[in-house]
Specification:
alpha/beta; OB fold (Dihydrolipoamide Acetyltransferase, E2P); Rossmann fold; six-stranded parallel sheet; 21 helices; 19% strand; disordered C terminus
């Protein structure tokens, strides 16, 4: 027998002293040597076969009912003999999704029927025998049976790990098949660095970091092949990704080909254009800017230059893949802040050339397990060093009550000739009860009327947004009150302070991205995390992590643990991160094993001719997600 303690999930063997059924419920009083407890089932049918004096084994949550413990809708077993050992004690039982029409007992009965009558005929082993033997794995049939009705905890873990391995192994094999299928269909131009590349790299006013050199080598190795490159360049904010991309574009120009550099906003495209033109025109390269706001005459001239090849590099927004844009010989496509573009948009730009090499860049560090799974069809280069001279950003947390102190800090920054970002999570009041950019803008105007304060958010007219941002870049605005529209890529070296209002509402990676908007000039920079008065435990954890850590890769891992892969990747990765059993956070070792085994298998048998059941299972589970092309 077990004592009946409130607040725990307990198991008890007790006698029924009272029972009654009414109004769709059954209530009973049970007793054992430690006292009595009340039991409530949300059905009146149980009163039809449970009688006073019966001996029951019960399992379920125990709550307090006044001063008396109470079982709420427990599982139970009738014990007909005094010596009978309850089958539910000491066992692991699955908990299935249930409702008023289909309760746990009914679901369990259906599962048992499926396991006993159909499983052996339906569950065919698809993993190679070598993999099963090397790692002592259960068969698929045994794993499915044990996950539903495990003998003990050790057996349950073995079954669970086998099924997690299946999901990760199938995903890795599918990704490898897709990548090899795609690379085998198309032939890209071979890009070789020449005189312009040598002149540019030899005359840099600074030394590249070791990780920049490694990334350039990896990219040139890819583009030197006639297989289309599909590479992701990831690096923390300010790690020098653009310089690596410039090296790749110069190599394309040395080979007589064109490059396209796509940015998510006009402001960012303009900034890239000005930097590239300043750096590359001395080499005799023609760089052009193509955006939706160009005048008709300017657009016509640029389109002609792209088509006849006189323009070497086109920088722009989604206007680059609009109808009417034709390239003479597009061989390299670079996508900045790749997570801001969908796959179809990248493909539309790539379709402007004949199987061009593609380099996607992101300043949002991606956790290692997501690289191996979600981004598994990309080669990845990582910049994990900051260029010399980049100063660390001081990060502090302030409660909402300390706003006056914050105003003093802002005034000091402006007095020294610096500028400030103030970021809010929403545009209007009433959105989830958060601080809004509109009301904050008005409040700051009242509190600091002597400062030049402007507002920026996504609902503003595009021309007005561009005007505000250009005014901030030019130093004509002291404080820019904005939503996260300023998160991506804007480079204002004179901005030395970032205020993040209701900071606990942002994800860790987003907080780190926003913090990276400052610290780009010579002045010491600070990021202030303004705490909401109703800060959640999760929000407090994120703020603490930001104060403690400045490494974007470490913060990305923490973000994955806290929010999970589905929320981080979003709906575009639906079907890839939605595993039934596997967990990308805790199953990293299983993922590594699955990836290694998938590579070995496909190296030996590229078309899986010797594993027809495995090939069928990949298509059955992942065909639509991975868009695999079926081949006989």
């Amino acid at each position: 027998m077990c004592e009946l303690q409130a607040g725990n999930a307990e198991c008890a063997v007790a006698f029924v002293s009272e029972i009654s059924g009414f109004n769709g419920k059954t209530e009973a009083v049970i007793t054992d040597s430690t006292g009595s407890a009340r039991v409530t089932w949300f059905t009146d049918k149980i009163a039809g076969f449970v009688r006073e004096g019966m001996r029951l084994a019960l399992y379920g949550p125990v709550n307090s009912y006044y001063i008396e413990p109470q079982f709420v809708h427990p599982e139970f077993e009738i014990l007909y003999r005094s010596t009978q050992r309850p089958s539910i004690i000491g066992r692991i039982f699955p908990i299935y999704p249930a409702n008023s029409e289909l309760n746990q007992r009914a679901v369990k009965k259906l599962i048992d029927t499926a396991m006993n009558d159909y499983a052996e005929h339906c569950l065919k082993e698809f993993l190679p025998a070598r993999v099963l033997q090397n790692y002592g794995m259960m068969s698929i049939l045994e794993a499915v049976r044990q996950i539903h009705n495990p003998f003990d905890e050790k057996t349950f873990i073995r079954a669970r790990n086998r099924l997690a391995f299946d999901e990760l192994f199938l995903l890795q094999a599918g990704i490898i098949l897709r990548r090899r299928n795609a690379s085998g269909k198309f032939h890209a131009r071979e890009l070789k660095p020449g005189e312009k590349f040598a002149s540019f790299t030899e005359n840099l006013p600074f030394k590249m970091t070791d990780s920049q050199k490694a990334a350039v080598y990896e990219i040139l190795d890819d583009t030197g092949s006639n297989y289309p490159m599909n590479r992701l360049l990831q690096g923390d904010v300010g790690s020098g990704k653009t310089l690596v991309a410039v090296c790749a574009m110069i190599a394309a120009c040395d080979s007589g080909c064109q490059s396209a550099f796509m940015a998510p906003t006009e402001i960012l495209a303009q900034q890239h254009y000005m930097k590239l033109a300043r750096s590359l025109e001395p080499l005799g390269l023609n760089v052009a800017l193509l955006t939706g706001s160009l005048k008709t005459s300017e657009r016509r001239e640029i389109l002609a230059g792209l088509e006849d090849g006189s323009i070497n590099i086109a920088v722009g927004t989604h206007a680059l893949f609009a109808d009417g844009v034709k390239f003479h010989d597009l061989a390299l496509v670079i996508v900045d802040e790749q997570h801001r573009f969908g796959v179809l948009q990248r493909n539309e730009l790539a379709s402007k050339g004949q199987a061009p090499h593609i380099l996607a860049m992101t300043a949002t560090p991606i956790p290692r397990t997501l690289i191996m799974s979600v981004y598994g069809d990309l080669e990845v280069s990582t910049l994990n060093e900051l260029p010399p001279g980049r100063k660390p950003i001081k990060t502090i947390a302030l409660p909402h009550s300390e706003r006056k102190t914050l105003y003093g800090m802002i005034r000091k920054q402006v007095k020294e000739g610096r500028q400030v970002y103030w970021v809010c999570p929403v545009i209007d009041e009433g959105e989830r009860g958060l601080s809004a950019v509109t009301s904050t803008y008005e409040h700051l105007h009242e509190a600091m009327p002597e400062l030049r304060i402007a507002i920026l958010h996504g609902r503003l007219d595009p021309s007005r947004k561009a005007g505000v941002m250009l005014g901030f870049v030019a130093g004509n605005i002291d404080v820019l009150v904005a939503t996260v529209v300023i998160e991506v890529g804007v480079d204002v070296p004179n901005a030395s302070m970032m205020v993040l209002q209701d900071a606990g509402q942002f994800g860790l990676s987003q907080l780190h991205q926003l913090r990276g908007r400052v610290g780009r000039g010579e002045a010491e920079s600070v990021c202030v995390l303004l705490e909401n008065e109703e800060l959640t435990p999760e929000g407090r954890e994120r703020i603490s992590a930001m104060v403690e850590c400045s490494d974007g890769f470490e913060l990305a891992e923490r973000d994955l643990i806290q929010r999970g892969p589905g929320e981080i990747c979003g709906t575009r990765q639906h079907g890839v991160t939605d595993f039934r059993v596997a967990d990308l956070v805790r199953d990293e070792k299983i993922l590594e094993l699955a990836r290694d085994e998938a590579r070995k298998l496909l190296d030996d048998d590229p078309e899986l001719k010797g594993e027809p059941l495995l090939r069928h299972e990949i298509f059955r589970r992942l065909g639509k997600v991975l868009e695999l092309a079926a081949t006989s």
